[in-house]
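step=encode ok
step=design start
structure_in=
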């Protein structure tokens, strides 16, 4: 996750303490010394929408073997013992779990901050008040275009209005909320309108997600932006960040080439600011799936991140999370902890491994069949990846 606003405009924002804390880069089992990873929990696979890019291939049906309330509470206790700072509750659609608020309260009891990733269609006024009352740290609501464009991408007519109402209801009760937007050929033409929406609705935070080829998202890999389109898109997002300033936090997610690209761009415009950007990128350490970010799916299986469900590290029904996360007998676990020597292709020869760390393995594997090959979504030129500091 790259905080464009912080890098370009400065300031302190929600989550900075985890992304840029001292000792972040060198940690092998968490976000920093003494803390475990941020864990994404796909609490259910059931969803009321059918999004084109869904990495979990969710649908509107009940899936068997979902963790029970008591099993989820055991999981939370296990995460607390490993000092996990944040549980990001996703799905499917997490608000379809009837025990969601009970589990949020349980997390608070064990000093784990919760955030919720949702399509927002179920956040009516009373639900927004309940989320606020249960002290949910942040709610991310997906909007991938305006009106029918969003509905087409999300697979259900009328979902845009419901999602937007969910954002409005959160803002009305001062529940921390932000907009999530997936960048792809199907949605990139909506960027200008989405920024207009952000301004009109006074939405305080927006995360722009690069497409990851996982689940139904694998079917869209040929619908990803070209490298030139990616560069143009990041240029546009950076310019909007300058225009909005610190009023709205703007982030990009799931492509660590963004950080290098921004640094090289700023190096030409403002060398002093570029130096500060590079220091923050080094502190962050790039992609840290299997280190500072992990995933538990609805059945309790542990994965390096939510996009690598084909790689199983263990199951919390059988072992504590800490045992699974530190088991170096698993080659994927061990490899991700110190991956630089395993990287292949452009990633192996790249000069920016300390600030990118090989980018996304799920995309590399989806395209090449090799988990350690180079990420095809890296849009840096050959000259840029061989550039000197």
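sequence_out=
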């Amino acid at each position: 996750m790259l905080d464009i606003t912080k890098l370009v405009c400065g300031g302190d924002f929600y989550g900075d303490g985890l992304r840029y804390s001292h000792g972040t880069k060198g940690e092998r089992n968490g976000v920093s010394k003494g803390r475990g990873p941020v864990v994404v929990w796909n609490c259910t696979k059931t969803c009321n929408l059918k999004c084109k890019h869904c990495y979990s291939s969710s649908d509107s049906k009940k899936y068997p073997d979902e963790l029970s309330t008591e099993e989820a509470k055991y999981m939370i206790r296990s995460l607390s013992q490993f000092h996990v700072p944040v549980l990001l509750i996703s799905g499917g659609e997490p608000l379809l779990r009837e025990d969601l608020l009970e589990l949020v309260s349980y997390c608070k009891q064990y000093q784990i901050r919760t955030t919720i990733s949702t399509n927002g269609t179920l956040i009516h006024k009373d639900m927004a008040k309940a989320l606020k009352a249960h002290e949910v740290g942040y709610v991310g609501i997906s909007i991938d275009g305006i009106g029918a464009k969003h509905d087409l991408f999300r697979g259900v007519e009328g979902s845009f209005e419901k999602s937007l109402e969910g954002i409005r209801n959160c803002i009305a009760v001062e529940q921390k909320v932000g907009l999530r937007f997936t960048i792809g050929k199907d949605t990139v033409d909506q960027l200008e309108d989405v920024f207009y929406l952000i301004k009109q609705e006074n939405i305080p935070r927006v995360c722009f997600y690069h497409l990851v080829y996982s689940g139904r998202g694998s079917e869209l890999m040929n619908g990803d932006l070209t490298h030139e389109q990616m560069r143009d898109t990041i240029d546009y997002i950076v310019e909007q960040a300058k225009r909005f300033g610190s009023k709205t936090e703007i982030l990009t997610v799931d492509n660590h080439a963004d950080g290098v690209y921004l640094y090289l761009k700023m190096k030409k415009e403002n060398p002093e600011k570029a130096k500060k950007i590079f220091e923050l990128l080094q502190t962050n350490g790039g992609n840290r799936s299997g280190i500072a970010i992990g995933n538990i799916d609805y059945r309790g299986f542990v994965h390096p991140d939510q996009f690598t469900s084909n790689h199983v590290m263990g199951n919390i029904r059988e072992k504590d999370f800490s045992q699974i996360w530190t088991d170096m007998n698993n080659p994927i676990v061990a490899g991700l902890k110190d991956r630089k020597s395993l990287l292949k292709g452009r990633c192996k020869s790249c000069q920016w491994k300390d600030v990118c760390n090989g980018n996304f393995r799920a995309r590399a594997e989806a395209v090449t069949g090799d988990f350690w090959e180079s990420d095809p979504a890296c849009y840096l030129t050959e000259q840029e990846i061989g550039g000197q500091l």
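step=design ok
step=annotate ok -> DSSP finds 17 helices and eleven strands in the chain.
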